[in-house]
Specification:
This protein has about 160 residues and is mainly β. It has 1 helix and 6 strands. It starts with a strand and ends in a 59-residue tail after the last strand. The relative contact order is 0.16.
Amino acid sequence: MLNKIFIMGRLTRDPELRRTQSGIAVTSFSLAVDRDYKTQAGERETDFIDVVAWRSTAEFVSKYFTKGRMAVVEGRLQIRDWTDKDGNKRRSAEVVADSVYFGDSKRDSTGSGGDYRRTEDFGAPPPASYDRFGSGRDSAPSGGRSDDYQEMTEEDGELPF
């Protein structure tokens, strides 16, 4: 059997970090996830999906994510049956997160979710400082500067790939 889910959306509120009686960290938050299709009126519908994260994942989410920040959640769907205060049987669905990833870069997150200019929070330079070869932004595979690239013409022969 398989129960695996991936969702990507924006946090609708700041995560709430709590601890169980035994001290285990748990964080709950909600993601606004757009559907892949538009209605006949040309609008995209949005689902609001509850997510819960435990232990180190919970601490990570509560430390680095805020309202408006894009997140990618990998986890499993969990259905819970419960009884409300009036004695009515209720059912809730939520995603139990195994992993949570940044869905945007710090520079791209201009929502209401805080200040993302500090790079020391993540222990690495901002993603824009790396090129597609994994080296510094000013380097090329040959070790030269990126502005040393020359455009190839048809006279240069076959492409190397």
